Amino acid sequence: MRKIFIGAIVLTLLYGCSEAKSPETNIAQKEYCLDEAFKSNLKIEHPKRQLMVNEIHLSGIVEPNPDNVIHFSNLVDGIIVNTSFSLGDYVKKGQVLAKVKSTDLTEWKSQQSILASKLAVAKHELESVESMYEDGIASVKQLKTAASEVATLASELEQVSTNLQLYNASPEKGVFLIKAPGSGYITEKNITSGMHVSAYNESLFTISELNEVWVQINVYASNLRNITQGMEVKIRSLSYPDIVFTGKVDALSHVLDSESGVIKARVAIQNEDLLLKPGMFVDVIAIEETKKEVLTIPTAALIFDNNQNYIVIYEDDCNLKTRAVEYIGQINGTCYIEDDLSTSEKIITKDHLLIYEQIKNLQNID
Predict the structure, then answer these.
(1) For the domain 55-66+209-291, what is the CATH code?
(2) 67-208 CATH pick, 3.60.15.10, 2.40.50.100, 1.10.1060.10, 3.40.30.10
(3) I want to staple 346 with a disulfide (CB 3.0 to 4.6 A). Which of 93, 224, 314, 365 is the partner?
(4) Strands (E), 138-200
(5) pLDDT tens figures, 302-351
(6) Distance of CA 247 to the CA centre of its chain
(7) What's the 3-state SS for 79-100?
(8) Mean pLDDT of the chain
């Protein structure tokens, strides 16, 4: 009787333990499957193999193209009477920008009058000699001398008149007019009213055509081996964060800049909208193509968790896996990874974080 009682207790305990553990067994066997509504929003892509491209981050500054820059120096000594332009103004060729009062104008005008009078006398003298020559009174030598005098005075008068015209003299106003030698923007101004200027001594102003500008890139010694002529670059400015300017390295200096301690690389950029201004600092990304073939996936496919990058692989609606991958780098939304993934495998790139969390929760429960 006692043995029967003990056996009944043991059976009761075993049955109770079995009932208590059954919920855990059900949870362990539970799997995550995609429903049709959620699946319709997913985006799935395949890994690809391609040559790796590096992005090298540099800095630069915008400068005018020197071939489209005019530095104007005054042609006479004098005093600036007034100016009619400001820094940044757009000016047209021939536009009057300033007036200079100079004693040279008085001297040249006086010289012009004297030469004109002498030339009139010399022409009258030549006519007399020609008449006498025809009458046999004057010699050939006298005729040639009179003609030579007329030619000499005419040449001197023409030179003075040409100078007055070249220097844009305005005798009626008593000043020389400084006119724009070309069209463009005033990028430098070094004169003010009342200022004394010397002939050929210094640049009074600079006119730059900005439809094409240069970006001078600072290349430090650590990046020099990666920068080559002809490589593609992308340029951004804080003024226009959503605009990317593209170009190629046109030239790479072989001389170290003594002030900045860098090598300069030059990129010519078409600037038809005039967004890039001289003196503007820009961020430059140089695109370096390598011969290393790597596996690529969309950067959006990565999930960073616990200091590790993961992806979600799709096999079927109830067979979803997470996989740790080694991140190498990225460019233009493409991520380089170190892994043995097949290009036929399917990677979820949208709403994958929700799936990752579901899988992770099930694993934690297990």
Answers:
(1) 2.40.30.170
(2) 2.40.50.100
(3) 314
(4) 169-170, 175-179, 184-189, 196-197
(5) 999 989 999 999 988 888 889 999 988 888 788 888 888 889 999 998 88
(6) 8
(7) EEEEECCCCCCEECCCCEEEEE
(8) 84
